[in-house]
């Protein structure tokens, strides 16, 4: 199943991130503008109310309100969204300006909390010529209520929305501003304040503002933000895709370079010009992997060739001996000698196959080890006793020294030491001595097998642990011990098995050689 495109995934991620950023920034700007507009409009309402109150307080009687109507309404002139109504001491409207959509036809509701609104400019000035007949008999003309309704205002304070009425002695602030819905659903914000006349009577001033124009402005601003945000997201996604495609070009070059690696060209390495620093580790890891594959393939090729050569030698010996025996009639003793020789070659082949199978199993990740704690000195003694007959035949002395407690697979331990001991017996001159030693040092346990004999050249010390590697070109054979712990003969796999066993235990093996002796050291780490 083909996975999603990395470029498309990153582009989508950048697009979503950009959209989220635009939404947050746009919302912040919108709310900030709304708050600023509302604060400015509230300030205009408060200043107009204060100015109107001050002018009313300069009047002597309520008749002065009608006489100075033009002067009072001049406060809100020039702003079609602003309206004013002034009520006399009797609660009836004295003057009115631009109250067309300020109040609903059937009254309305108001609150002292801030609200939103829009404008509906409709200006008119209605002067109320009506007056009441006082108890003293004073009479004046009465304004027709129908004219007030047509002007858009309200006839009495009682018909106003329920606003908080600011006393004449209290300071007018923006917290006293109320909000309600006017005619045609227009949002209105206003303030209602009393003003003391010189004769002691109280008039009431209403300053209101239709917020419809502000809300239309905010709507247009929001629409522009949405359009700009959508265009910005599309542009960001397009540019992101192009930049990501360009940034991922080294990956395509790496894939193309890796595609040139074949079985016949394992020495090819990935080369990309100007690799980004983030991809250097990937290129180095791939080249290191190719190096290991190349080295392993070459090792396997050499192993296969050496195995074929070593298996061909005993088979050729058996075939040659059989052909010579069949060339003419032979005695019974000669045939028995031929069968004995062929049997030795068969044993040699069996040991070789067994060792190859062991190495193959040991390299498997699920190879099972049976770890246990034992006395390494006692085990060295048992192994030396097992090889005592072979050592006597070779006129070689064996000595076991030291003691140590070791945790390892006992069977693998015996096999590793047996291979080293068999190798030491093979190359120790007659009358020489082999020393097996066990020692503890901190977190390590060392098992040493040293023997007298010819030194090993320095260039061979590391390679002697490779499979089928021999210093001696002659492929002399050591007689079989008849046990799985015995020598591997001349198959060239004995030391390779020792190294594999040590790797399975997380330890190491090394060889040291000088003019007097050769020493093989097994180093186990404590578990």
From TrEMBL:
Sorted UniProt keywords: ATP-binding, Cell inner membrane, Cell membrane, Kinase, Membrane, Nucleotide-binding, Phosphoprotein, Transferase, Transmembrane, Transmembrane helix, Two-component regulatory system
Keyword Ubl conjugation on entry: no
Regions that span the bilayer: 6-33, 225-244
GO molecular function ontology, one term from the record: protein histidine kinase activity
EC code(s) of this entry: 2.7.13.3
Signal sequence segment: none
Domain HAMP: residue ranges: 245-298
Primary subcellular site in the record, as a coarse category: membrane
Principal EC category: transferase
Localization per Swiss-Prot or TrEMBL: Cell inner membrane
Catalytic activity: ATP + protein L-histidine = ADP + protein N-phospho-L-histidine
Pfam families, sorted: HAMP, HATPase_c, HisKA
Biased composition (Low complexity): 104-121
Claim: Phosphoprotein is one of the keywords in the record: yes
Region Disordered, annotated ranges: 101-121
Domain Histidine kinase: residue ranges: 306-527
Free-text function comment from the UniProt entry: Member of a two-component regulatory system.
The protein's name: Sensor protein
Source organism per UniProt: Paraburkholderia solitsugae
Phylogenetic classification of the source organism: Bacteria, Pseudomonadati, Pseudomonadota, Betaproteobacteria, Burkholderiales
